[in-house]
Amino acid sequence: MVSTVSRSDLPEQSPGIKKPVQETLLTPRFYITDFDAVAQMDLSGHEAELEAVVAELRADYNRHHFVRNEEFQQDWEKIDGETRHAFIDFLERSCTSEFSGFLLFKELSRKLKNRQPLLSEAFHLLARDEARHAGFLNKAMADFGLTLDLGYLTKNRTYTFFPPEWVIYTVYLSEKIGYWRYILVYRHLEQHPEHRFYPLFRYFESWCQDENRHGDFFKALLRSQPKLWNCWKARLWARFFLLTVFATHTLTVLERSTFYDSIGIDPQEYNKAVIQNTNETSKRAFPSVLDTDHPEFFPRLEKCAIANQKLAEISSQSRPKFIQTLQKLPWIAVIIWQLLRLYFLPAIDAEASRPVIH
Ligand SMILES: [Fe+2]
Ligand SMILES: [Fe+2]
To answer: What are the residue boundaries of the Rubrerythrin diiron-binding domain, all occurrences included (predicted)?
Structure first.
C-alpha cells in the first residue's frame, strides 16, 4: 500500500512487445494458494447454491460477445499524446489483472480436478472468461502497436502466496469492484458518447456481467464456509480486505487521473461511486462492511492518495537512495496513520440486516 507506482514510459522488450510496468504493491498481483486446503473444503449443505451459480457460468452468455467488429478497423494513431499514454497504461493494467485471474483459476481447476469436481469445473469456467477478457484487451493493445508478452509474464512474475480464506475475500472483492468499475464507465459513456474514443468501451456492459457472476460464485463459496463470516475474526478480516482494496483503488485512480479525464469522468467522483457501490454489494457476502458515508471516510482515503503522489515524486528524483528513504518516511507515516484511523471507524454490521438482503 505504501509503495509507489512508476509510470511506464512504454519500454519494449523487442519491437511491439511491451515490457510490463515495474512491479509494485499497486500493480495487479499474481497469486498462488494452498490447493490441498481448497480440495478439503467442506461444502456440504451448500451444494444447491454452488450448483446454481455454476449453472450460470456454464450457460456462457458471452460466448459470442468478445468478437471485434469493424469499428476497430481504423488507424489509431489519431489517439496521441497523454491520452494515448494513459489509455495504453489502462489497457495494460486491465490485461494483467484479467490474466492474473486466469492463471489462478486455471491452476485451481487443474489441482482440484479429481478431488472437488464442482469447484474444479467452476474454476475452469472462470478461467475461460478471464482468458477471453485478457485476450480481448491484448488485441486492443495491438491496435496501438504493442502486445503484452503473457508467456513472459507467467514465467517472470513473482507470485504471492495467499491462504484460501484470503483468496476468497480478495477475489470476491476484485470481481465485484471490477463489475462496478466497468458498468460505471459504460453508463457514463452511454450518456456522453462524445468521450467514447475507442470501441472497447461498448463491450463493458456484457463484460461486467461476467465479473458479476464470478463474484456471485465467490460469494457462494464464502457463505459455505461459516468461519469466513460468523466470528469476530471474520469481521476484522472482511473490513481489512475492504479497506485494502478501496485504498488501492483510490491511489490508483487518483494517480491515473489523465485516463479518467480523457473519457470525461471526474476521477474523485468515480472513485467514490465505485467504492460506495462495492461496499454496499459486499453486505451480501461479508459479515461486516465499512461506513463509506462517514464524513471522514473519503477525505482520509484522499490524504493517502496525496501522500502516495509525494512518494512517487521523491522516487522520480535523482537523489541517493538513503536520502529518498528519509524523505519518504513522513509520507509513509501519513498513509499508515490514515489507514489505521479508517480501519477503526465504526463499522456496519451486515449480518444484522441479513434477512432483508437477497
Ligand atoms: Fe475478467
Ligand atoms: Fe472475473
So the answer is: 89-222
User: For 297, left (φ over 0), alpha (ψ -120 to 50), or beta?
Assistant: alpha
Q: Which residues surround ligand 2, an ion (CB under 5 A)?
A: 175, 211, 214
CA of 130 to the centre of ligand 1 (A): 5
C-alpha cell at 168: 476468497
pLDDT one digit per residue (tens) for the chain, 358 residues: 333 333 344 445 565 666 665 555 556 778 999 999 999 999 999 999 999 999 999 999 999 999 999 999 999 999 999 999 999 999 999 999 999 999 999 999 999 999 999 999 999 999 999 999 999 999 999 999 988 888 888 888 888 999 999 999 999 999 999 999 999 999 999 999 999 999 999 999 999 999 999 999 999 999 999 999 999 999 999 999 999 999 999 999 999 999 999 999 999 999 999 999 999 999 999 999 999 999 999 999 999 999 999 999 999 999 999 999 999 999 999 999 999 999 999 999 999 987 654 4
| Ligand 2 centroid distance, CA of 108 (Å) | 14
Going from the Cα of 123 to the center of ligand 1, the distance in angstroms, rounded, reads 13
**Nearest ligand, measured from the Cα of 125:** 2
Whole-angstrom CA distances from 271 to 85, 186, 225, 350 are 21, 15, 31, 22
Q: Which ligand is nearest to the CA of 99?
A: 1
Distance 33 CA to ligand 2 centre (A): 17
3-state percent helix, strand, coil for the chain, nearest multiple of 5: 70, 5, 25
Ligand nearest to C-alpha 174 = 2
Per domain, the residue ranges of the chain are 17-222, 229-358
Residue 209 CA to ligand 1 centre (angstroms): 9
